[in-house]
Design goal:
The protein is built from eleven helices and 15 strands. It is α/β, with parallel strands linked by helices. The chain has a six-stranded mixed beta sheet with strand order 11-10-12-15-13-14, sandwiched between helices. It has a five-stranded mixed beta sheet with strand order 5-1-2-9-8.
Length: 381
């Protein structure tokens, strides 16, 4: 597998050069996306061996950049821009005299109109860029059992938040989701599927789509939280609502909803009026009520085994919870910015204990008469 050895930004407000050092010359597809302004570099699958701090600091026209897997066989670098730019030059330098191969982009300021025209021209002449489409397959087993869809947040190019000890959210939530999935499967009462099972990115829309396509009876998105001071800790369960519980819940939803933009996905192209058109539909209202019932069950059970936030059930407008026909909730397992929470979140014993408790909450949810009626199809024909 090819390596990316380094990436750096040089230049000034009039001209910036973005350089990627690679172990072998690599072909790249490069295109722009607006709102926010980004340059996306799609590569074949590579191994990134850059320092953890790479991309945090930009220069002149570039504010930052990030990198990672976007889908099977494909890696991506996303460059955040301070404004519209034009790609003046794009070329590959072969290795020579002990120096690695290089992919070079020269960027210069341009107008918004010219940036948008270039982005549209690329879309018109190329197939739609890969958005990390969900590839989960239908789980084996008795189709009469309810399907629980587990959604480990972030992944691939989108690392999520980072703990005080350097632990990445995408790794913590994937590990926990697998523990929870194994325990649910072991009960022999559920089928379990995942929106992702490895370190790849899946767009928010595709996470919703795979749950709907497989007729999931329950959707649980798994995340961890962070806070600047590091003093805040505890578990929070969220359900979807057009109105957020408070400013903190609204800010969290905004942050989670930016995942697609961070991954270099054309958010406007991904948006659909399908969900918006049925926000007031009775099916979705009932679905949201089931989501709230599930969240309340989680809060009741989790309070017995782990520290809960002072307001443990909150609501906000999370895109990943907007399936009109799948009851859903999003759990922030803890604050990875807090050393005590981070220690627990990465503890196999804590993960197992909390997963056991969540299995109990899921059992209780499905045992309720209203939930049982929903699962058998009265509310989801």
């Amino acid at each position: 597998m090819p390596y990316v050895l380094d990436a750096r930004v040089v230049g000034d407000e009039n001209h910036v050069r973005f350089v990627v050092d690679t172990s072998t010359p690599l072909a790249a597809a490069v295109f722009g996306l607006a709102d926010p302004y980004r340059i996306v570099i799609d590569l074949p699958e590579v191994r990134f061996v850059l320092p953890d701090s790479a991309g945090n600091d930009g220069r002149a026209l570039v504010s930052a950049f990030r990198y990672g897997v976007i889908s099977a066989g494909k890696s991506r670098v996303v460059i955040d821009l301070t404004g519209p730019v034009a790609i003046e030059k794009q070329f590959v330098v072969p290795p020579a005299d002990g120096q690695p191969a290089r992919l070079v982009l020269d960027l210069v300021p341009t107008t918004r109109a010219k940036f948008l025209a270039a982005a549209q021209s690329y879309r018109d002449s190329h197939a739609a860029p890969d958005t990390g489409a969900a590839s989960a397959t239908a789980p084996a087993g008795d189709t009469g059992k309810p399907l629980v869809m587990l959604d480990p947040g972030h992944g691939g190019i989108d690392s999520g938040t980072r703990g005080s000890g350097g632990v990445l959210e995408k790794d913590v939530v994937l590990a926990f989701a697998k523990v929870l999935g194994d325990k649910l499967t072991a009960t022999n009462r559920y089928r379990v599927a995942y929106t992702r099972t490895d370190d790849t990115y899946v767009s928010l829309g595709d996470r919703v789509k795979v749950a709907r396509d497989q007729h999931a009876a329950l959707f649980l998105s798994v995340h961890v939280n962070s806070f600047p001071t590091g003093a805040v800790r505890g578990t929070i369960v969220y359900t979807v609502s057009d109105a957020a519980s408070d400013k903190m819940a609204a800010a969290l939803a905004d942050s989670e909803n930016r995942s697609d933009a961070l991954a270099g996905i054309d958010v406007k192209a991904e948006d659909s009026d399908q969900v918006k058109d049925i926000l007031l539909d009775l099916t979705q209202r009932e679905t949201r009520n089931f989501g709230v019932a599930f969240a309340q069950a989680l809060v009741r059970h989790l309070g017995k085994t782990t520290l809960m936030f002072k307001v443990p059930h909150q609501q906000a407008s999370f895109k990943v919870l907007e399936a009109p026909d799948v009851p859903s909730a999003l759990i922030e397992l803890g604050y990875i910015s807090n050393p005590e929470d981070e220690k627990e979140l990465t503890s196999p014993a804590w993960q197992a204990s909390v997963a056991d408790t969540m299995v109990g909450a899921i059992d209780g949810y499905f045992q309720k008469e209203t939930a049982a009626t929903f699962v058998t199809g009265a509310a989801n024909p």
